[in-house]
Amino acid sequence: MSEAPFGRRLLTVTGMDELGSYRVLRVADPDGPDPAPGQFAMLATAERWGGGEDERPYLPRAFSIARWGEGEAHFLLEDVGPGTNRLCELEASDRLWVLGPLGTGFTPSRDGRRALLVGGGVGIAPLAILQDVLEGQSTVLLGFRDAGRAVGAALLGGAQVATDDGSVGYDGRVTDLLTTELDSDPWATVYACGPAAMLEMVRAMCAERSVPAQLALEAGMACGFGACFGCVVPRRSGGYLRVCVEGPVIDAAELDLVDEHAGAPT
Length: 266
Hints:
single chain; about 270 residues; alpha/beta; Elongation Factor Tu (Ef-tu), domain 3; Rossmann fold; 2 domains; 7-stranded antiparallel sheet; 5 helices; 18 strands
């Protein structure tokens, strides 16, 4: 597991690619540590990172590292508010503050189970780098709200796609596809990231079938390294887990349920 260098780094944007309703932000990071699949970084633009009459600074935003290679990191963005709107405006040669890689990532199975990657919406991001590490030896199930967002499935290879409105692929929820896969062969490990409701269905489904699952959670973060305790979720055995340190990837067996605020945006 890579550890981030102390302090944030000022990096250069190499490009911004359109991917349906999403954007893929590409950032040069030739001296950065190799991230593990599921780790994240805290991002903030070097200029105009604030709002209101006094341009009060925004907190940095946490984003899963979607892909890494040849000294370049990729992040999947969706314009859903002032902070993400500013990030989506970035162009090549713009500067970006980056702190990361942070957190605990996915752990590949070593018992011969097949890998089932289950993603929803912008939560597909950490599954892309995981698929790269698994070198294609995985089954990918992705769910989206509509056709515009379903274009994001191109981030991964060979994905089965479900859409809420039936405009692309299976008409229904991605967890329906997961049910079919587990009913046909339960000897699997599930790796999932997406909206909280989806993650809770995955957790419950896997618990019922005694299928191991690793869930990449998302929660509001102020620091990203465990100091503020702003992103905690209850632990099954008592106490709390910090999503930014003990997570964002957490063994599903550690949770009684997935908190409604601990999932990726839909």
